[in-house]
Design brief:
- This protein is of the alpha/beta class and 384 residues long.
- It has one domain.
- Helix 10 crosses helix 11 and helix 15 packs parallel to helix 17.
- The longest helix has 16 residues.
- It is globular.
- About 4% of the residues have low confidence.
Length: 384
Protein backbone atom coordinates (compact mmCIF):
# COMPACT_ATOMS: atom_id res chain seq x y z
CA UNK A 1 0.00 0.00 0.00
CA UNK A 2 1.24 3.47 -0.87
CA UNK A 3 2.66 5.42 2.04
CA UNK A 4 0.32 8.27 1.01
CA UNK A 5 -2.73 6.07 1.74
CA UNK A 6 -1.57 4.69 5.09
CA UNK A 7 -2.81 7.69 7.15
CA UNK A 8 -6.31 7.11 5.72
CA UNK A 9 -6.38 3.38 6.54
CA UNK A 10 -8.34 3.82 9.83
CA UNK A 11 -10.94 5.89 7.96
CA UNK A 12 -11.32 3.20 5.29
CA UNK A 13 -11.66 0.48 7.93
CA UNK A 14 -14.23 2.51 9.92
CA UNK A 15 -16.20 3.18 6.74
CA UNK A 16 -16.20 -0.50 5.80
CA UNK A 17 -17.38 -1.52 9.27
CA UNK A 18 -20.15 1.09 9.14
CA UNK A 19 -21.34 -0.12 5.72
CA UNK A 20 -21.36 -3.73 6.92
CA UNK A 21 -23.34 -2.70 10.02
CA UNK A 22 -25.92 -0.87 7.90
CA UNK A 23 -26.34 -3.81 5.51
CA UNK A 24 -26.63 -6.56 8.13
CA UNK A 25 -30.20 -7.63 9.05
CA UNK A 26 -31.50 -6.68 12.49
CA UNK A 27 -32.20 -10.36 13.22
CA UNK A 28 -28.42 -10.81 13.67
CA UNK A 29 -28.55 -8.43 16.65
CA UNK A 30 -31.84 -9.15 18.44
CA UNK A 31 -30.35 -12.25 20.07
CA UNK A 32 -28.20 -9.89 22.14
CA UNK A 33 -31.32 -9.22 24.24
CA UNK A 34 -31.59 -12.32 26.40
CA UNK A 35 -32.35 -13.36 29.99
CA UNK A 36 -29.10 -11.77 31.15
CA UNK A 37 -30.20 -8.48 29.55
CA UNK A 38 -33.51 -8.64 31.42
CA UNK A 39 -31.74 -9.27 34.72
CA UNK A 40 -29.42 -6.30 34.17
CA UNK A 41 -32.28 -3.97 33.23
CA UNK A 42 -34.83 -4.92 35.88
CA UNK A 43 -34.34 -1.60 37.67
CA UNK A 44 -32.34 0.37 35.09
CA UNK A 45 -35.20 2.55 33.74
CA UNK A 46 -33.07 3.34 30.68
CA UNK A 47 -34.32 4.50 27.29
CA UNK A 48 -33.65 1.01 25.95
CA UNK A 49 -36.30 -0.27 28.38
CA UNK A 50 -38.72 2.65 28.15
CA UNK A 51 -38.58 3.61 24.48
CA UNK A 52 -37.30 0.40 22.92
CA UNK A 53 -39.12 -2.65 21.64
CA UNK A 54 -36.72 -5.54 22.26
CA UNK A 55 -36.56 -5.69 26.06
CA UNK A 56 -40.29 -5.34 26.62
CA UNK A 57 -41.01 -7.79 23.80
CA UNK A 58 -38.75 -10.38 25.42
CA UNK A 59 -40.25 -9.60 28.82
CA UNK A 60 -43.68 -10.67 27.58
CA UNK A 61 -42.68 -13.31 25.05
CA UNK A 62 -39.90 -15.38 26.64
CA UNK A 63 -40.22 -14.88 30.35
CA UNK A 64 -41.97 -16.33 33.38
CA UNK A 65 -39.62 -14.87 35.99
CA UNK A 66 -40.57 -11.18 36.07
CA UNK A 67 -43.67 -9.14 36.92
CA UNK A 68 -43.67 -5.80 35.05
CA UNK A 69 -44.74 -2.67 36.93
CA UNK A 70 -45.57 0.31 34.72
CA UNK A 71 -45.73 3.82 36.14
CA UNK A 72 -43.91 7.15 36.14
CA UNK A 73 -41.48 9.04 38.36
CA UNK A 74 -42.36 7.19 41.58
CA UNK A 75 -40.45 4.19 40.23
CA UNK A 76 -37.20 6.20 40.22
CA UNK A 77 -37.24 7.27 43.87
CA UNK A 78 -34.59 5.71 46.13
CA UNK A 79 -37.11 4.18 48.50
CA UNK A 80 -36.29 0.90 50.31
CA UNK A 81 -39.96 -0.13 50.10
CA UNK A 82 -40.07 0.08 46.31
CA UNK A 83 -41.26 -3.39 45.16
CA UNK A 84 -38.06 -3.93 43.16
CA UNK A 85 -36.18 -3.73 46.48
CA UNK A 86 -38.68 -4.97 49.07
CA UNK A 87 -40.19 -7.97 47.27
CA UNK A 88 -38.15 -11.16 47.53
CA UNK A 89 -38.39 -14.93 47.22
CA UNK A 90 -40.24 -15.20 50.55
CA UNK A 91 -43.05 -12.73 49.88
CA UNK A 92 -43.42 -12.79 46.07
CA UNK A 93 -43.44 -15.40 43.31
CA UNK A 94 -41.87 -13.14 40.65
CA UNK A 95 -39.29 -10.36 40.55
CA UNK A 96 -40.69 -6.91 39.78
CA UNK A 97 -39.44 -5.33 36.54
CA UNK A 98 -39.77 -1.53 36.59
CA UNK A 99 -40.90 0.36 33.47
CA UNK A 100 -41.47 4.10 33.80
CA UNK A 101 -40.04 7.53 34.37
CA UNK A 102 -41.25 11.09 34.87
CA UNK A 103 -43.65 12.11 32.10
CA UNK A 104 -44.80 8.54 31.37
CA UNK A 105 -48.54 9.17 31.42
CA UNK A 106 -51.38 6.98 30.12
CA UNK A 107 -50.73 7.39 26.40
CA UNK A 108 -46.96 6.88 26.71
CA UNK A 109 -47.49 3.67 28.66
CA UNK A 110 -50.35 2.73 26.36
CA UNK A 111 -48.17 2.92 23.25
CA UNK A 112 -45.41 0.91 24.96
CA UNK A 113 -47.88 -1.83 25.82
CA UNK A 114 -49.84 -1.68 22.56
CA UNK A 115 -46.60 -2.22 20.64
CA UNK A 116 -46.58 -5.68 22.28
CA UNK A 117 -50.34 -6.25 21.94
CA UNK A 118 -50.01 -9.71 20.34
CA UNK A 119 -47.97 -10.98 23.33
CA UNK A 120 -50.18 -9.70 26.17
CA UNK A 121 -52.93 -12.32 26.42
CA UNK A 122 -53.00 -13.71 29.94
CA UNK A 123 -49.88 -11.76 30.99
CA UNK A 124 -49.88 -10.27 34.47
CA UNK A 125 -48.54 -6.84 35.32
CA UNK A 126 -49.39 -3.70 37.32
CA UNK A 127 -50.06 -0.19 36.11
CA UNK A 128 -49.79 2.75 38.54
CA UNK A 129 -52.08 5.70 37.76
CA UNK A 130 -50.99 9.05 39.20
CA UNK A 131 -53.65 11.72 39.80
CA UNK A 132 -51.36 14.60 38.85
CA UNK A 133 -51.46 13.37 35.21
CA UNK A 134 -55.04 14.67 34.95
CA UNK A 135 -54.19 18.26 34.14
CA UNK A 136 -55.86 20.92 32.01
CA UNK A 137 -53.61 20.06 29.04
CA UNK A 138 -52.88 16.33 29.44
CA UNK A 139 -49.79 14.91 27.72
CA UNK A 140 -47.71 17.79 26.34
CA UNK A 141 -45.91 17.89 22.99
CA UNK A 142 -42.62 18.09 24.86
CA UNK A 143 -43.23 14.94 26.90
CA UNK A 144 -44.56 13.12 23.85
CA UNK A 145 -41.40 13.93 21.88
CA UNK A 146 -39.16 12.83 24.77
CA UNK A 147 -41.01 9.65 25.76
CA UNK A 148 -42.48 8.00 22.63
CA UNK A 149 -40.27 6.30 20.04
CA UNK A 150 -40.91 5.92 16.32
CA UNK A 151 -40.11 2.22 16.54
CA UNK A 152 -42.77 1.60 19.19
CA UNK A 153 -45.42 3.39 17.12
CA UNK A 154 -44.36 1.48 14.03
CA UNK A 155 -44.58 -1.83 15.88
CA UNK A 156 -47.99 -0.90 17.31
CA UNK A 157 -49.50 -0.71 13.81
CA UNK A 158 -47.93 -4.09 12.93
CA UNK A 159 -49.81 -5.96 15.68
CA UNK A 160 -51.82 -8.57 13.78
CA UNK A 161 -54.44 -9.21 16.47
CA UNK A 162 -55.20 -5.57 17.27
CA UNK A 163 -58.57 -4.41 15.98
CA UNK A 164 -58.77 -1.81 13.25
CA UNK A 165 -60.89 0.28 15.58
CA UNK A 166 -58.04 0.53 18.12
CA UNK A 167 -55.50 1.32 15.40
CA UNK A 168 -57.75 4.10 14.13
CA UNK A 169 -58.08 5.52 17.65
CA UNK A 170 -54.30 5.51 18.14
CA UNK A 171 -53.78 7.16 14.74
CA UNK A 172 -56.31 9.90 15.58
CA UNK A 173 -54.69 10.58 18.94
CA UNK A 174 -51.16 10.63 17.54
CA UNK A 175 -52.16 13.20 14.91
CA UNK A 176 -52.82 15.68 17.72
CA UNK A 177 -49.09 15.96 18.46
CA UNK A 178 -47.10 18.63 16.70
CA UNK A 179 -43.95 16.68 15.86
CA UNK A 180 -45.40 13.24 15.18
CA UNK A 181 -43.29 11.59 12.48
CA UNK A 182 -45.42 10.24 9.60
CA UNK A 183 -48.67 12.20 9.48
CA UNK A 184 -49.55 10.92 6.01
CA UNK A 185 -49.51 7.32 7.25
CA UNK A 186 -51.61 8.26 10.27
CA UNK A 187 -54.15 10.21 8.20
CA UNK A 188 -54.48 7.31 5.78
CA UNK A 189 -54.99 4.91 8.70
CA UNK A 190 -57.77 7.13 10.07
CA UNK A 191 -59.42 7.45 6.65
CA UNK A 192 -59.21 3.66 6.13
CA UNK A 193 -60.84 3.08 9.54
CA UNK A 194 -57.71 1.51 10.98
CA UNK A 195 -56.56 -0.52 8.02
CA UNK A 196 -52.88 0.23 7.58
CA UNK A 197 -51.27 0.98 4.25
CA UNK A 198 -47.47 0.80 4.34
CA UNK A 199 -45.35 1.52 7.41
CA UNK A 200 -45.04 4.30 9.94
CA UNK A 201 -41.27 4.22 9.35
CA UNK A 202 -39.41 2.55 6.48
CA UNK A 203 -38.16 -1.01 6.82
CA UNK A 204 -34.62 0.31 6.41
CA UNK A 205 -34.99 2.78 9.28
CA UNK A 206 -36.65 0.18 11.50
CA UNK A 207 -33.77 -2.20 10.80
CA UNK A 208 -31.18 0.38 11.88
CA UNK A 209 -33.08 1.47 15.01
CA UNK A 210 -33.49 -2.12 16.19
CA UNK A 211 -29.78 -2.82 15.74
CA UNK A 212 -28.77 0.30 17.65
CA UNK A 213 -31.22 -0.55 20.42
CA UNK A 214 -29.86 -4.11 20.70
CA UNK A 215 -26.27 -2.89 21.03
CA UNK A 216 -27.17 -0.18 23.57
CA UNK A 217 -29.06 -2.70 25.69
CA UNK A 218 -25.76 -4.46 26.45
CA UNK A 219 -24.54 -1.68 28.72
CA UNK A 220 -26.09 0.95 30.97
CA UNK A 221 -24.44 4.34 30.66
CA UNK A 222 -26.32 5.99 33.50
CA UNK A 223 -26.64 5.32 37.22
CA UNK A 224 -29.43 2.93 38.18
CA UNK A 225 -31.63 4.90 40.63
CA UNK A 226 -32.20 1.96 43.00
CA UNK A 227 -28.86 0.22 42.55
CA UNK A 228 -27.52 1.09 46.00
CA UNK A 229 -30.84 0.92 47.91
CA UNK A 230 -31.09 -2.01 50.31
CA UNK A 231 -34.17 -3.43 52.09
CA UNK A 232 -34.71 -2.18 55.64
CA UNK A 233 -36.93 -5.08 56.72
CA UNK A 234 -36.06 -8.71 57.32
CA UNK A 235 -36.50 -10.88 54.25
CA UNK A 236 -39.21 -12.93 55.99
CA UNK A 237 -41.04 -9.98 57.57
CA UNK A 238 -44.85 -10.09 57.48
CA UNK A 239 -46.82 -7.38 55.70
CA UNK A 240 -47.91 -5.85 59.01
CA UNK A 241 -44.30 -5.78 60.20
CA UNK A 242 -43.26 -4.10 56.93
CA UNK A 243 -45.99 -1.47 57.35
CA UNK A 244 -44.84 -0.75 60.90
CA UNK A 245 -41.23 -0.36 59.79
CA UNK A 246 -42.30 1.85 56.87
CA UNK A 247 -44.31 4.06 59.25
CA UNK A 248 -41.30 4.51 61.54
CA UNK A 249 -39.02 5.06 58.55
CA UNK A 250 -41.36 7.72 57.14
CA UNK A 251 -41.63 9.41 60.53
CA UNK A 252 -37.85 9.53 60.89
CA UNK A 253 -37.43 11.06 57.43
CA UNK A 254 -40.13 13.76 57.70
CA UNK A 255 -39.32 15.52 60.96
CA UNK A 256 -39.15 19.01 59.48
CA UNK A 257 -42.81 19.64 58.61
CA UNK A 258 -46.43 18.91 59.51
CA UNK A 259 -47.30 17.53 56.05
CA UNK A 260 -45.23 14.33 56.43
CA UNK A 261 -43.15 15.36 53.40
CA UNK A 262 -39.67 13.86 53.38
CA UNK A 263 -37.10 16.26 54.76
CA UNK A 264 -34.97 16.46 51.60
CA UNK A 265 -37.95 17.53 49.50
CA UNK A 266 -39.23 19.93 52.15
CA UNK A 267 -35.86 21.66 52.08
CA UNK A 268 -36.32 22.25 48.33
CA UNK A 269 -39.82 23.62 48.88
CA UNK A 270 -38.56 26.07 51.49
CA UNK A 271 -35.72 27.14 49.20
CA UNK A 272 -38.21 27.96 46.45
CA UNK A 273 -39.75 31.27 47.56
CA UNK A 274 -42.34 31.39 44.78
CA UNK A 275 -45.99 30.60 45.48
CA UNK A 276 -46.83 27.02 44.59
CA UNK A 277 -49.62 26.81 42.02
CA UNK A 278 -51.08 23.38 41.16
CA UNK A 279 -54.50 24.65 40.09
CA UNK A 280 -54.06 23.07 36.65
CA UNK A 281 -54.10 19.59 38.21
CA UNK A 282 -57.14 17.50 39.16
CA UNK A 283 -59.19 18.61 36.16
CA UNK A 284 -62.35 16.51 35.86
CA UNK A 285 -62.39 17.24 32.10
CA UNK A 286 -58.72 16.48 31.48
CA UNK A 287 -57.90 14.90 28.09
CA UNK A 288 -55.93 12.36 30.14
CA UNK A 289 -59.18 10.49 30.82
CA UNK A 290 -59.52 9.65 27.13
CA UNK A 291 -55.94 8.36 27.12
CA UNK A 292 -56.67 6.23 30.19
CA UNK A 293 -59.76 4.79 28.49
CA UNK A 294 -57.74 4.00 25.37
CA UNK A 295 -55.15 2.15 27.46
CA UNK A 296 -57.78 0.17 29.41
CA UNK A 297 -59.69 -0.70 26.22
CA UNK A 298 -56.45 -1.89 24.63
CA UNK A 299 -55.51 -4.09 27.57
CA UNK A 300 -59.03 -5.57 27.77
CA UNK A 301 -59.08 -6.44 24.08
CA UNK A 302 -55.54 -7.86 24.29
CA UNK A 303 -56.61 -10.11 27.16
CA UNK A 304 -53.93 -8.82 29.57
CA UNK A 305 -54.34 -9.41 33.31
CA UNK A 306 -53.64 -5.90 34.56
CA UNK A 307 -53.77 -4.72 38.15
CA UNK A 308 -54.49 -0.97 37.90
CA UNK A 309 -53.38 0.93 40.99
CA UNK A 310 -54.87 4.38 41.60
CA UNK A 311 -52.69 6.31 44.03
CA UNK A 312 -53.65 9.44 46.00
CA UNK A 313 -51.91 12.77 46.44
CA UNK A 314 -50.76 14.16 49.79
CA UNK A 315 -54.17 15.45 50.88
CA UNK A 316 -52.95 17.65 53.71
CA UNK A 317 -50.43 19.37 51.45
CA UNK A 318 -52.90 19.85 48.59
CA UNK A 319 -55.42 21.37 51.01
CA UNK A 320 -52.68 23.77 52.08
CA UNK A 321 -51.94 24.93 48.52
CA UNK A 322 -55.62 25.40 47.66
CA UNK A 323 -56.48 22.23 45.73
CA UNK A 324 -59.02 20.90 48.20
CA UNK A 325 -60.72 17.52 48.57
CA UNK A 326 -63.82 18.80 46.74
CA UNK A 327 -61.65 19.15 43.62
CA UNK A 328 -59.62 15.97 44.15
CA UNK A 329 -62.41 13.56 45.01
CA UNK A 330 -64.32 13.74 41.68
CA UNK A 331 -61.07 13.03 39.78
CA UNK A 332 -60.31 10.04 42.00
CA UNK A 333 -63.82 8.69 41.39
CA UNK A 334 -63.63 9.25 37.63
CA UNK A 335 -60.29 7.40 37.42
CA UNK A 336 -61.91 4.44 39.19
CA UNK A 337 -64.98 4.59 36.97
CA UNK A 338 -62.93 4.86 33.76
CA UNK A 339 -61.04 1.68 34.66
CA UNK A 340 -63.89 -0.42 36.02
CA UNK A 341 -66.52 0.52 33.43
CA UNK A 342 -64.11 -0.45 30.65
CA UNK A 343 -63.32 -3.91 31.97
CA UNK A 344 -60.36 -3.25 34.27
CA UNK A 345 -59.85 -4.18 37.93
CA UNK A 346 -58.41 -1.57 40.23
CA UNK A 347 -56.72 -1.30 43.60
CA UNK A 348 -57.99 2.12 44.63
CA UNK A 349 -55.72 3.72 47.24
CA UNK A 350 -57.30 7.17 47.06
CA UNK A 351 -59.05 6.67 50.42
CA UNK A 352 -55.53 7.02 51.87
CA UNK A 353 -55.30 10.65 50.67
CA UNK A 354 -54.85 11.85 54.27
CA UNK A 355 -53.00 8.82 55.69
CA UNK A 356 -49.48 9.71 56.88
CA UNK A 357 -46.40 8.16 55.24
CA UNK A 358 -48.29 6.86 52.19
CA UNK A 359 -47.05 9.73 50.03
CA UNK A 360 -43.47 10.91 50.57
CA UNK A 361 -43.76 14.42 49.13
CA UNK A 362 -46.68 16.00 47.26
CA UNK A 363 -47.57 13.16 44.89
CA UNK A 364 -45.03 10.31 44.97
CA UNK A 365 -46.05 7.04 46.56
CA UNK A 366 -43.53 5.65 49.03
CA UNK A 367 -42.79 4.22 52.46
CA UNK A 368 -46.06 2.80 53.82
CA UNK A 369 -47.76 3.43 50.47
CA UNK A 370 -45.28 1.15 48.71
CA UNK A 371 -45.88 -1.60 51.29
CA UNK A 372 -49.61 -1.53 50.51
CA UNK A 373 -48.72 -1.91 46.83
CA UNK A 374 -46.09 -4.58 47.55
CA UNK A 375 -48.66 -6.74 49.32
CA UNK A 376 -51.26 -6.21 46.61
CA UNK A 377 -49.05 -7.04 43.63
CA UNK A 378 -47.61 -10.06 45.47
CA UNK A 379 -51.15 -11.42 45.75
CA UNK A 380 -51.85 -10.58 42.11
CA UNK A 381 -48.76 -12.52 41.02
CA UNK A 382 -50.15 -15.68 42.65
CA UNK A 383 -53.76 -15.36 41.47
CA UNK A 384 -54.87 -17.90 38.89
Amino acid sequence: MSSKLKPFLPIFISGAIFIIFVLLPSSWFTGLVNQKTLAENRMSLTDQVLKGTLIQERLFNHNDKYYPIYGSSELEKDDPFNPAVALNKHNASHQPFLIGTGGNTDLVNGIELASNYDELKGKKFAFIISPQWFTNHGLTNQNFDARVSQNQINQLFHQKNMSNELKQRYAKRLLQFKHVHNKDFLRTTVENKGKTDGNYISNFKENQLVKIEAIKSLANFKDVPLEHVKPVTDEKASWSEMRDVATQYGKAHSQSNEFKIRDKYWKLIKANKRKINRDYEFNINSPEFSDLKLLVDTMREAGADVEYISIPANGKWYDHIGVDIEKREPVYKKINKTVTENGGKIYDMTDKDYEPYVITDAVHIGWKGWVYIDEHVAHHMKEK
